[in-house]
Amino acid sequence: MPREKMSHLTDDEIISRIRSDGATDLYSLLYTRYHQKVLDKCYSLIKNRGTATELTEDIFTKTFEKLPSFRQHSAFSSWLYSITYNHCIDYLREQKKLHYPSWNQENELPEIIDESTDAVEEIEYDNLMVILEMIHPEEKALLLMKYQDDISLKEIGKSLRISEDAAKMRLKRARTRVKYLYNEKFLK
Fold this sequence. Notes:
The chain has two domains: 98 residues, Orthogonal Bundle (Rna Polymerase Sigma Factor, Chain: A); 80 residues, Winged helix-like DNA-binding domain superfamily/Winged helix DNA-binding domain (Arc Repressor Mutant, subunit A, Orthogonal Bundle). The chain contains ten helices and no strands. The radius of gyration is 18 Å and the shape is elongated. The protein is an all-alpha fold. The longest helix is centred in the last third of the chain and has 24 residues.
């Protein structure tokens, strides 16, 4: 069947054909579908187009190599985005020596923060983008994984190599930090 007639296949159907028929050339359909999204996610964390492009290629290579281990318990896109965030965070940790626990201690939040309302959803998009650039890349990745890509806490934990409870705690801390910084920057 010609490639253009295969473009209607779902991700799961493509993966099944790759596995059962050895049709590895179909991986290019997944690449075409997700390349720009992965590149954008890399760039949002790395802030360097050339490096983001290199990381994107690494991610697709890694994803192709790991495809046999993909269990399809979640959507392919969620799995791919988990690999993307994990790869970018690993890169940042290596390049900038970013260690979240140390950074968090150095950027301690005040003890008294009103957490009774979840005002993060009420923040204007442009203001939220400003605030997301002010927080640690790991917190940014956590928030994007949860609220943009709808990845489960279990998958987030696995992706960041932390427990599900630690992911939940860090997500809460990231939301609190966003609210605090928003209040400091835009409401005072």
